[in-house]
Amino acid sequence: MRRKDLKFIVCIAFIICLSGCATVPRATEVFPYKTITMHNQPYFALLPMCESEGVKWDYDPLSKVILLKKDKADVRLLIGSSSIVSVGGLKKLSGPVDIKNSVIYAPVELMGYIVPPVCKFPEKKTAGSLYLRAIDSVILDAGHGGKDPGAIGRGGVRGKDVVLDMTQRVRNELSRCGLEADVTRSADVFIPLASRPKAANDKKADLFISIHANANRSRWIEGFEVYYLTESVDDDARALAAAENAPLDIEDHDLRGQFLSLKAMLWDLIYTENRKESIELAHFIGRAVSKKMNIKLLGVKGAPFAVLKGARMPAVLVEIGYISNRDGERKLRDPQYRQAMAEAIAGGVMDFKNYCEGASRTNKSD
Ligand SMILES: [Zn+2]
Questions:
Q1: 57-61, 85-89, 132-136, 325-329, range with greatest mean pLDDT
Q2: Residues with CB under 5 A from ligand 1 (ion)
Q3: Ligand 1 mean position to 2 CA, how many Å?
Q4: Does domain 31-116 have CATH number 3.30.457.10?
Q5: Domain boundary assignment for the chain
Q6: Assigned fold of 119-362
Q7: Ligand 1 center to 213 CA (angstroms)
Q8: Using CB atoms within 10 A of its CB, is residue 335 exposed (0-12), middle (13-18) or buried (19+)?
Q9: 258-317 pLDDT, tens per residue?
């Protein structure tokens, strides 16, 4: 019960901390936890971070040794010492691990040892693509928001809240990998569908990724899907697109006219140009998630999503799970699950980046 309470508080603190920022921080400034100044540098509270990121921890008050484990990371710390033992051997932090008001604090750089950025352990190198284009910036779009709640689970979990938290976690992961990652919304606000890809166009972003949580009348359906834009689709994809495009009827009634105009011809050219890469990006994300997460990949499919229309770069829409499914809702409620899912999506983006940049040709040294 106490762990659950703590998780909840950490999650809320996390959301408040992030959504409170009026401006989106630059890639290099992102540190996802509250910091305080100790020993003349930024420190963060260690255990709340462990709870949020799914890091297993153990503290022996007698020896004052802390053990931290997650995936391939295995780190040992000693209170009062700046030396740590990591997988690579003995490392030195810029300041000692310390206790203040019964809370254990560590210098922010420790984060990199415990929760390495997803790019630190890349998937096996794929054959270099023919594109050889740089992927430096990404716009992440949290679906719905404000008066449009998105899917709502029986337990009260709202799609708009879950995907807001998810996009911020994906942004943090990509920022840690050196990508310039921005979001279309960092608060619970309504944004018309057409403004979302426009934000990506205005910033000349290299990728556009819209994140949603799905729902279905059939409550037993659970799984993960990645969509790219297409016009000819099956009935299920058309039904989903109709549901996702619903806010279009309220706010974007002039969009249809716009697409019937001459602009549509120009857009058609851009769309055809980016279509192949969008499909590949969708497959990279689908592969990364199904490899890391215990969730069924229901497909990488085409659908006529309005939010993807007009994006002048490879663009995909990710449905992270079914909020209408009891298990799906339970998982999406869990910040550790959302963090793991965010890391998986970011990993897929990094795999795609490596692919586009021909990493297998240029990074032969490792
Ligand atoms: Zn949605």
A1: 325-329
A2: 143, 150, 212, 244
A3: 33
A4: yes
A5: 31-116, 119-362
A6: Aminopeptidase (3.40.630)
A7: 6
A8: buried
A9: 444 444 545 555 566 688 889 999 999 999 999 999 899 998 988 888 888 888 899 999
